[in-house]
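Thread: "does anyone have the structure for this chain?"

Original post by V.I.:
We have the sequence but no experimental structure in hand. Need at least a predicted one for the grant figures.
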Amino acid sequence: MEPTPEQSPHHAYPDHWEADVVLRDGGTARIRPITTDDAERLVSFYEQVSDESKYYRFFAPYPRLSDRDVHRFTHHDYVDRVGLAVTIGGEFIGTVRFDRINEQGRPASAPADEAEVAFLVQDAHQGRGVASALLEHIAAVARERGIRRFAAEVLPANNKMIKVFRDAGYTQQRSFEDGSVHLTLDLEPTEKSLAVQRGREQRAEARSVQRLLAPGSVAVIGTGRTPGGVGRTVLRNLLAAGFTGRTYAVNRAFDEGLATLDGVPAHRSLGEIDEQVDLAVIAVPAHRVPEAVADCGEHGVQGLVVLSAGYAERGSAGRELQRELVRQARSYGMRIIGPNAFGIINTAESVRLNASLAPESPARGRIGLFTQSGAIGIALLSGLHRRGAGLSSFISAGNRADVSGNDFLQYSFEDPDTDVALLYLESLGNPRKFTRLARRTAAVKPVVVVKGARHSGTNPPGHAVPVSRIPDATVSALMRQAGVIRVDTVTEMVDAGLLLAGQPLPAGPRVAILGNSESLGLLTYDACLAEGLRPRPPRDLTTAASPQDFRDALAEALADGTCDAVIVTAIPWVGENGEAETGDGEVLAAALRGAAAGGPAKPVAVVHVEIGGLAEALAAASSTAAPRTRPTTLAGRPAAAPGAPTGAAPATATAPTGPGTEAPAETAGAAGTAETAETAATEASDPPARPGRIPAYPAAERAVRAMAEAVKYAQWRRQAATPGKVPEFLDETTDEPGAAALIDTLLGTAPDPRGRPLTHDEARELLGRYGIPVRPTLPAPDPEAAVAAAARLGYPVALKTTAPHLRHRADLGGVRLDLTDEDALRRAYAEVTELLGKPAELLPVVQSMAPRGVDTVVRASIDAAAGAVLSFGLAGAPSELLGDTAHRLVPATDRDAAELIRSIKAAPVLFGWRGSAPVDTPALEELLLRLSRLVDDHPEVVSVALEPVVVAPQGLTVLGATVRLAPPPPRGDLGPRRLPNY
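Reply from O.Q.:
Generated one for you, tokens below.
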């Protein structure tokens, strides 16, 4: 919306304040600034507000707004006077405004930093979280305009409004003056306000998905009059699944006399249906979708599944159609799955919804599945069905224009019917939010992800989302830090999902192997070693072993305190005549299930070769499996995922060590947030889960890989129960205000959006403010200058070239070390310039020598999509070529720093490899934490590279540093909650 001419051109309409939000009940609404064009909307809105709400707003009977009121409430300068409205269907349902005031409470302009705020919400929409959403957004607007505090006068009887302010989490003061409650809110975000905001976001977004998956009624729009076609197929699948709600067939081409179709009421439009429809499945050509969406919005439909194609997957014109589709649906308060979707499934007995193109609804189970690809969705449904696995819910989002994997995580987090969340993703619209939600969800139940389109550098057709520049290896590391089980293929995702959904989590990496094939046992043993597990020597039961022998051996292995998991290998029995017999798979399955049910809760997996009926029998629900009813945390959330760690011996350290050296501390996994720690700590007291379905695999490698993922995830869960801490560094070595002032000076009043690199001295000064000393270098444009520099620094010195093409390339001869006197320095200078070029091209410098140690590289950079990332690796071409670099999200905890240096493949070099002296890893961890704190405190620091960092047995030395500053990128994850607009 454009401003009118009477509005100041210096305060143009702030369209970046517009936002779509999800309300408490799962419906959507739009928040936008109020303009002069809204006079009629405001009057209409006010007429629908009760006299009581008007009294609470104006402290007196106020039946109608005067012309002066309407003018005042619709004319804003967007600086000192701001009004926001919440709209659904283009009409106001709530408003908020602030007026800047001075210390005497009179109208003022900047630099006054206080404003009076007032809300009004239509009675019919109270209780939906409208005021809470408005407070978040008006507070963000106020902070942007330099306002630091809100003042509000509330009548004591207006409990709802008092609660909105009280529950927001801001620092506040209250007093009772002249018959009203005077509230003052400090608008600086606090840890509590951010937690409140994210808690509301989680509940609202989870509810929005729940409304889609559990409707009371469904209308299929575009149902064909003859069998076949997309709409008729969905209608048939709805009926075949036994949907417990009401179903309607809708097609404007139906004959007027047609009353039913396939036994359900048939209508030409939603307006002919006597009740409100909760969910509409749209299966009409793309050019007719807007008409169908309008019909849905005008008749109160809560959500849409759009199967129609012809959108962003068709190019720029289709992408604009897709954006308009989302805008139209959200204007009516509806969320969308799709377009180009495959559909949704909910197997709950109380719902039995199959609003998809899948011809057969999967069995009821404990796995939730989200996919961005219809083809992959079909393959996954088929694969899970063949393996005897059931689903709790299924969403195939197609182009993922609205409902995304993030929404699915919000829903899965609190869904009591889902124990494992599987996601096939081709794009991450908001990586920061994804890692935050995944970390919280992974603390209570496993999250398994396959990421498609990993190496293309672009998003798949139809996925109009920001493209992250960080490499896939970094994405994988960040997912691991968040507790996500990242696998490479959908087959591996199914393998891991089956194990995690049916078995307890292992207490450690110790694996017992038993079976009737020595060769298959050895293959399993080798696979365990390759995956970093600690297998015991395989136990060969011989080919003559009976099902009872298997049962006895499995029971013995489970009872053994030195084993954390068991892998059973089985081949067909050999009969007396020497011919192989397939045997009775059901008998063996019953024996294995009996042993698993009677022993300690440890995960069991089976590797079998051509044993008929075994996999199917193992997949059958065990009558001895524990019930799935789970306790809740104090916050009311489900506390126990299937197979919480059993609490036996913890996994051993996975950090590499050298012979005769002390092993580093246990490091696999990553620490969670305080929120995940609370939840995980609650789970630690839960009783161990009993084993249920035993997964069967046709190859040893697949079973072992799934078990290894479970081991790593269980270790992450244990560590998340006691998360690491972000050090404060509140000593004299850290000067946060001084660093901020220096950054402001270096960027200037009108910084270049592209940023600027710092000089060596500028970088040294900035890093020094955070206790990161950089060894000085002095320019050496000629031999005499080099000698003078060495005399100033003191021998021994190093001579280095700093030209971009030679930087950090000692292998090219541009670095000469341990020059102990003037003659050695002059010889080195002559050799370098003769070999590589003129001094003006080489830009040589002189630097004093550092103590001998291991050369490492420490980096931090900000990706617009993923946020700030801290990286570590060894210096040199081999590490760079092999991609041996570890990554963690910022801010890093002390545990993150410890894990970071131990998670690279070359980590043994730091801990005394081949008899060398171990280096000072605590000093290295402190350096990582200080750099993390710097980039977290100052988002203007968009990249830092410390190279090399020489880590000696005592202490470390930073020999080189490059820093780049730029205006900070926007942080949507810290602002008020809003739905993305792509």
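V.I.: this helps a lot. The chain is about 35% helix and 20% strand.
O.Q.: and Confidence is low (pLDDT under 50) at residues 1-10, 622-688.
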